[in-house]
Amino acid sequence: MLVTGGAGFIGANFVHLVEKQWPDCEVTVIDKLTYAGNRANLAGCRAKFVEGDITDTALVDSLVKDTDVIVHFAAESHNDNSLHDPSPFITTNIMGTFVLLEAARKHSVYLHHVSTDEVFGDLEIGAPTKFTESTAYAPSSPYSASKASSDHLVRAWARSFGLQVTVSNCSNNYGPYQHIEKFIPRQITNILSGRTPKLYGTGEQVRDWIHVEDHNLAVLEILARGRFGETYNIGADQKDINNREVIELICELMDIPGQYELVADRPGHDQRYAMDASKLRKELGWRPRYTDLRAGLIDTIAWYRENTAWWQDAKEKVESTYAAQGQ
Ligand code: NAD
Ligand code: TDX
């Protein structure tokens, strides 16, 4: 198995899980080690590690030649960064996916593409609607537009060239090894480092939080029993919870109730995401293990508390970048 982006948040959790669940599977990771990638995320893993860029055609070809399946996580993944410099999002998310698809086509290798709920745009706050696999694409940010573009490429390679592919679109993940630029770990590490948690706008926006392990267990089910050419939505069916409620829960769990600050909103901020994952549940029998966000957050807070060395060096830089943006 070739795992792209395996030194990032979800990819690294995935490699740990594969090695536990499928001990006979030989894993190779290709990762560029951008600011978001960290070799330490793979400590204790047996996987072969290749530091490299998925846009490097010769390198990708040499790795794909020797693999049975590609699980494609590598991406620029942060919306806020895409608003300040979209360029690496276009290069990695679109061109990188193209390079992988061409190598997969040349060597007839199955590719699973890891994508996001953001390709569907957003939903109205308070509405009962959810995204299904057939919801029309309407991405809002350079990040989500680049992911939408990559999804289209993957499906075109299946239809035009008969490439064996599956696609998954998942909602917001949380859990260990998530970069501290992202909402939940940013607030946890703000509190652990004596800073005030920061809420964009007034925090009305709704995200459909899922624990990273549940996302990755769903990807394993798709790899094992998913149908080629199909797309599967992944989401944990959370009741709607907005960012203000999440930050208040984190503050409460970390003993600083109500002590957070309102900062500049994100331009073009998507209002609400909600995933209908009934296809995955019905076809593949997947069920989330973390059904209680509070319990998942307690575990996640404990992880960041116990692993200060993992995030401390990056904290100052992340916060000074946000401060320069008024966030
Ligand atoms: P991340 O930013 O934590 O990790 C991305 C990894 O990709 C890093 O290790 C980075 O070094 C690597 N990378 C970036 N550019 C590369 C390149 N050109 N070549 C090789 N490696 C490169 O991201 P994440 O949150 O783990 O997201 C992983 C995937 O899951 C992405 O495709 C993302 O769109 C998707 N996704 C994320 C979420 C979420 O909530 N985080 C939800 C749904 C889908
Ligand atoms: O400090 C913050 N304060 C805040 O209120 C940050 C960093 C974010 N927010 C808000 C913005 C969003 O409404 O919290 C919400 C979550 O923000 P992010 O963690 O940046 O996630 P989001 O933009 O929703 O995208 C995430 O989920 C889908 C991932 O980063 C994507 O990679 C994934 O595709």
From TrEMBL:
Domain NAD(P)-binding: 2-291
A biological-process GO annotation: nucleotide-sugar metabolic process
Keyword terms, alphabetized: Lyase, NAD
Secretion signal, residue range per the UniProt entry: none
Reaction(s) this enzyme catalyzes, per UniProt: dTDP-alpha-D-glucose = dTDP-4-dehydro-6-deoxy-alpha-D-glucose + H2O
Pfam families recorded: GDP_Man_Dehyd
Cofactor requirement: NAD(+)
Enzyme Commission number(s) from the entry: 4.2.1.46
GO molecular function, one term: dTDP-glucose 4,6-dehydratase activity
Transmembrane annotation, as ranges: none
Highest taxon in the source lineage: Bacteria
Family: Belongs to the NAD(P)-dependent epimerase/dehydratase family. dTDP-glucose dehydratase subfamily.
NCBIfam families given in the database record: dTDP_gluc_dehyt
Protein name (record): dTDP-glucose 4,6-dehydratase
Organism annotation: Corynebacterium stationis
